[in-house]
Amino acid sequence: MFVVGLTGGIGSGKSTVAERFAARGVPVVDTDAIARDLMAPDAAALAAVTARFGPAILRADGTLDRAALRRIVFDDPAARAVLEGILHPLIRREAERRLQTLSASYALLAVPLLVETGVCREYVQRVLTIECPEPVRIERVMARSGLTRGEVAAIVAAQASDAERRAVADDVLDNAGAPATLDAAVARLHARYLALAQAGLAGFST
Fold this sequence. Notes:
The protein is an alpha/beta fold. 54% of the residues lie in helices and 12% in strands. It is built from 10 helices and 5 strands. The longest helix has 24 residues, at 77-100. The radius of gyration is 18 Å and the shape is globular. Helix 2 crosses helix 5 (77-100), helix 3 (44-53) packs antiparallel against helix 5 and helix 7 crosses helix 8.
């Protein structure tokens, strides 16, 4: 199966774009969703992360306090590397398992940090990056997360730049316009990916 890697900076609208593809029958494997599943209260990954970073990353009910974990690893590359060392192999394995269950012409594999970490890059034949002006992205994230402007700006600054994402992208979708514009862009890309998949280009295989 042909696999398109979907990526983009925080607040760029990756989930919205993925929903538009899903509405056209395209299966979406979301590595953020996989990571959340892996960090559920009864999941082995949460136990491993808690053993490494301590119970301060847990809420009273035993669920992950994402903000607390973010504060620990955000400014500490060594701590972030430890966290990625725990999670990324598990994410790769689960993403591969989910892709193997699909029978569609092509699938989207949503990997927010595809450029920064390369996680799951081996499963992707084409890269679609979503772009949106930074001020819009910051406002979106503030509205949904409760983070301050400075906190969101720091996250944006720590991620790959638009230029770095374009350097590895096969397709770039500008998500700064109206919904109708986005729908038209997704329709064009969907037709392109169907054509590539039907042309028999090598894709993910079991």
